[in-house]
Specification:
The complex is a heterodimer of chains A (160) and B (439). Chain A has 160 residues and is α+β, with helices and mostly antiparallel strands. Helix content of chain A is 21%, strand content 34%. In chain A, the strands form two sheets. Chain A has a six-stranded antiparallel β-sheet with strand order 1-10-9-4-3-2, with no helix packed on it. In chain A, strands 5-6-7-8 form a four-stranded antiparallel β-sheet, with no helix packed on it. With 439 residues, chain B is mostly helical. Chain B has a domain of 85 residues. Chain B contains 18 helices and four strands. Chain B has a two-stranded antiparallel ribbon with strand order 1-2. In chain B, strands 3-4 form a two-stranded antiparallel ribbon. In chain B, helix 6 packs antiparallel against helix 9, helix 14 crosses helix 18 and helix 16 packs antiparallel against helix 17. Chain B is flat, with a radius of gyration of 24 Å. The N and C termini of chain B lie far apart (64 Å). The chains are: A alpha+beta (160), B mainly alpha (439). At the A-B interface, helix 2 of A face helix 5 of B.
């Protein structure tokens, strides 16, 4: 059937061939949906159990952390940064750079927190002071607890 | 008038694509393809079904790759994660596992029909060779994929399977180490099988399948000798393709039915394929592999390896001074080689006189068969198994009689030996598989 024949038949009831072609198209379409639906469901990852930990005890003593230094620790599924300022105060932040989620580090020469990926800088209060980061690092609460039966103190970091 | 000369017609998008991609040339190529119609046309659909099931394997295999992690500490856990936590994960894994088994079944039917209809005749010898190559690639796919869930059954099946090459003299130990990636089946074997299963075999299969399909396209479908066509051939597009699609949907329906119904009684008992392979056993993940646990009782390989399993089990430890395993491996190796050579040996089916090569190779195969029968007779009589000894004598008599008939056959006429021998092989394979399922 040529294009002009099709033009002539516009508006009239479908021929048997057109009807069967339509059925076939519907069947193939239904098959495509029946395949695409489970595949789409499969590709979306199942929810991983989010860490509900409100606080974490760091695996090193407070006394091990010298002034003007910092260490990265594990807080649930995300990294945290604990640092001791040159004045001796303990502070903890999320170690995820607010720019593109690289893990930040303590830079003792500058006494600041730096992100190596794109040159972001944060001061000792976690404020974004230079480079691309748009927001300050979220701060955590730091508490000290005397170690049971031993010397020194545990660092307990909890969400603000 | 060809479609390419209709170039200027159609929508602007179609014209744009056609000019750059040459789509109309491709459409012309497929448009000219025709399929002969006769009483054996039914067998043409099995290759298409095998292709469909292979595509199911590719699609589900890629999906499994998204969550599967190779490694002895993670593999079993990741498969467990797939079937319990991932949405539709159970379906994807079941599809991959059951479709692999159906693929083997369909490929065997395809192979058998091509053999008995002698579709390997000139000029389709290389289509046969590439098809047979694909068959052995699929067997290797099955063997390597079986280990990946790292469960108890897989571990012992792989330990046993990779031990077989050790029977080969001189290089046996080296081959075992090469296949396992070390002296034992460990995480190294898992890494190796994983690489084989998801990279090496798919690459080889893509090449072999490409050549196979290109040759099918080039030579068209073979009409068996002595068969009258019922009428004009059927156009491939759309007539045959739509009929092919029915085969694809039938395969899909069988697949989904097994996955959904077969694992649970009482439906499982209703399906004949339950007698062939055990879907329940395929779908269960089972215990995690433990190299220091004893092999579970009643351990068996997949059904398509049962014939080999049973034969090696039946062979005496010592056959005329040779190791039983070696004799078995040798027989299967020569059998596989002979299968590749079928189109070059059965020249009469193409109306060709025997060549120097076909005479030499055929004679060598006959001698090998006679030697095997003599060995079987001797070792069975030695062990006091007179039924086995009688089978050896009968086999030798069959080969000698066949040789005699073959010598009296006028050159250029089709040999009756080939199908007769084919049925003998089919009877052996089916018999051994049934024995394996029942024992």
């Amino acid at each position: 059937m040529t294009e002009s024949d099709k033009e002539d038949r516009r508006g009239s009831p479908p021929t048997r061939r057109e009807f069967v072609d339509g059925l076939l198209t519907c069947a193939l379409g239904a098959t495509a949906i029946a395949v695409a639906f489970p595949v789409a469901g499969y590709i979306v990852p199942p929810d991983a159990p989010e860490s509900q930990d409100a606080s974490v005890v760091l695996p090193f003593a407070a006394e091990e952390l010298l002034p003007n230094s910092g260490r990265v620790f594990r807080f649930g599924n995300e990294p945290g940064l604990v640092l001791r300022t040159p004045a001796g105060e303990l502070r903890a932040f999320s170690a995820r750079c607010t720019h593109l989620s690289c893990t930040v580090q303590y830079a003792p020469e500058q006494s600041r927190v730096s992100c190596a990926c794109h040159g972001g800088w944060f001061d000792l209060s976690g404020r974004n002071v230079a480079g691309p980061p748009p927001r300050p690092l979220p701060a955590f609460v730091v508490n000290l607890r005397r170690r049971a039966g031993g010397e020194g103190h545990d660092i307990v970091v909890s969400r603000a | 008038m060809t479609s390419s000369s209709r170039g200027p017609e159609g929508s602007p998008l179609r014209r744009f694509l056609d000019e750059r991609l040459g789509l109309s040339a491709l459409r012309d190529l497929i448009g000219h393809k025709q399929v002969p119609v006769h009483r054996h046309s039914f067998w043409y659909y099995w290759g298409g079904m095998a292709l469909f099931l292979f595509l199911v394997q590719v699609a589900t295999g890629i999906l499994l790759l998204l969550y599967y992690r190779p490694g002895p500490t993670e593999a079993w856990e990741s498969v467990q994660f797939i079937v319990t936590r991932v949405r539709w994960g159970w379906l994807v894994r079941s599809l991959h596992s059951i479709s692999a088994n159906l693929l083997m079944l369909v490929v065997l039917v395809h192979l058998g029909s091509v053999f008995f209809l002698r579709a390997y005749r000139r000029p389709r010898e290389l289509t046969w060779v590439t098809g047979l190559g694909l068959f052995f690639l699929f067997i290797t796919f099955g063997f390597s994929g079986y280990l990946l869930p790292w469960n108890e059954l897989a571990f012992f099946a792989t330990s046993v399977g990779t031990e077989i090459p050790r029977a080969i003299p001189v290089v046996g130990d080296f081959l075992v180490r090469l296949v396992r990636g070390g002296p034992e089946v460990t995480g190294a074997t898992l890494s190796r099988f994983y690489g084989l299963h998801v990279a090496i075999l798919p690459a080889l299969t893509t090449v072999a399948l490409g050549i196979h399909l290109a040759l099918v396209q080039k030579h068209g479908m073979s009409v068996p000798g002595g068969v009258r066509e019922k009428g004009p051939p059927m156009p491939f597009l759309p007539n045959f393709l739509l009929r092919d699609l029915i085969g694809w949907f039938a395969a899909l329906a069988v697949l989904i039915t097994i996955i959904v119904l077969a694992p649970t009684a009482p439906f499982g008992a209703l399906f004949p394929f339950d007698a062939l392979f055990d879907p329940k056993h395929l779908l269960e993940l089972g215990e995690k592999a433990d190299p220091f646990a004893s092999a579970p009782v009643g351990i068996k390989p997949e059904w398509y390896f049962l014939f080999m399993f049973e034969t090696l089990k039946a062979l005496p430890a010592d056959v005329a001074g040779l190791e039983g395993e070696l004799v078995g491996v040798l027989a299967f190796g020569v059998g596989a080689l002979a299968l590749f050579l079928v189109p070059f040996l059965d020249r009469g089916a193409s109306g060709l006189p025997p060549s120097r090569f076909s005479r030499l190779a055929g004679g060598a195969l006959a001698l090998f068969g006679l030697a095997m029968c003599a060995l079987a007779t001797w070792s069975m009589a030695h062990a006091g198994r007179w039924l086995g000894a009688a089978a050896g004598v009968a086999g030798a008599a069959w080969i000698l009689g066949a040789l005699l008939l073959e010598c009296r056959r006028p050159p250029g006429s089709a040999s009756r030996l080939v199908p007769a021998f084919g049925w003998l092989v089919v009877a052996f394979l089916v018999g051994m598989t049934v024995v394996g399922r029942l024992s």
